[in-house]
Amino acid sequence: MNQYDMVVIGSGPAGEKAAAMAAYFDKRVAMVEREPRVGGTVVSRGGIPTKTLREAATYLSGYHRREFYGVGVDIDPKLMLELLHRRAAEVMDLVAHSVAENIDRHGIDLVHGTAALTPDGNVAVAGDDGTTRILEATNVLIATGSRPFRPPTVPFDDPGVDDSDSILALESIPESLVVIGGGPVGVEYASISTALGVRVTVIDAGQRLIPFADEEISATLQAALEDDGARFIFDSPGTTIERTANGLEVGVPSGEVIVPDKVLFAAGRTGNTEGLGLEEAGVATDDRNHIVIDEHFQTSVPGIYAAGDVAGPPALASVSAEQGRIAASHAFDLGVVEQLDPLPVYGVYSLPEVGMVGQTETAAGANGVDYAVGRYRFERNPRSRIAGPGIGMIKLIVDKHDHSLLGVHIVGEEAAELVHIGQAAIHAGDKVERFIHSTFNVPTRSEGYKFAAYDALQDISGRRLSG
Predict the structure, then answer these.
(1) Rounded to an integer, what is the distance from CA 346 to the centroid of its chain?
(2) What's the pTM value of the predicted model, to 2 decimals?
(3) Residues 61 and 109 in one domain
(4) What 8-state DSSP symbol labels residue 378?
(5) Pairing mode of beta strands 132-142, 123-126
């Protein structure tokens, strides 16, 4: 009963999908999870709770109604936090239950405990009762995820300093918050906090928000957050955090000292590899505790695979799931999924959202492409103005010579949904005229693609009427 074709360590998106694929093809699969609830970081501490908090904060604060109707929602902060936590817990339980049902439906043996590789390539599982069970495995997939990076210079033992995991247990809504890190996680928490009326300062060592995003999209997002009251300090490596008689002090290289109620350190993640016995088993890791893998997600040891956050960026649930499927397909020579989607979509669930796929202006220029840009600003879009302030735009990057679509970048409400239209068009090899010849419902935000396409053609022809 302890012999398996595959043992999966971790029940996040990579582990769940790899296990399900192997079981679907009649392989005997065991999944080891050390947490009481399945689903991994995305369910318990990452994407699901953060996105739920975003929606709940938007609704409870009357965020979209304040500007147009002058009517917000005045809820006692303690009750507000209670409602936020309650809603997040409900959704987390719902998604975890869905994952558990999928595991059960595929006949996967779920083993609770802490797993470690043995020198002979099997898996030892230490149970809470002190017993150890050895799972003999033809193949092993490590999908243990990641956790927030905690540099030793940051005093996480101070009750006022949190990372993106610990802040989920917030006991009160602070009046002021410093967020260190201008990446997706930092921006999401900064915008949620701003919607709740918190005075937010974002500090980053780089030049701008979300450095892998299109520069114009990044600037538009920053401007929207500034309009909501957030403040930004860039070019600030070596920011210090210390507790003094004045309270929690954050010092930046310019000499300014900020005294917030709370600090959120959200600058990077590191792989969950400790205690897995990787060195003893011969599995190589890098300097951020990420497991080194090849194009099939196989480690330095044949038959041992790694997928998801534990194998490094991009740390997206969607990509992690595909990595797990590729690993299982390769392990059993299924020939089902052999390579990752070369055009993954990115979504940042800030207020407003960001969605992106394909080349940015900077990337197109670096690749030597003679490109055009088409924009459509949501301030002109009836659906956006009906629902809210109409912040943001759809931006298309187009090859001037053959009119092929190279990239789609969106900032605004539903950006993470809208970007899939662009992804499908790029995958199909469509020219930008595809949007012009398509009929979109009116009023919708999607019709912005048509007007952005017209704008791109005007840029190509040199007859653009406005920016």
Answers:
(1) 8
(2) 0.91
(3) yes
(4) G
(5) antiparallel
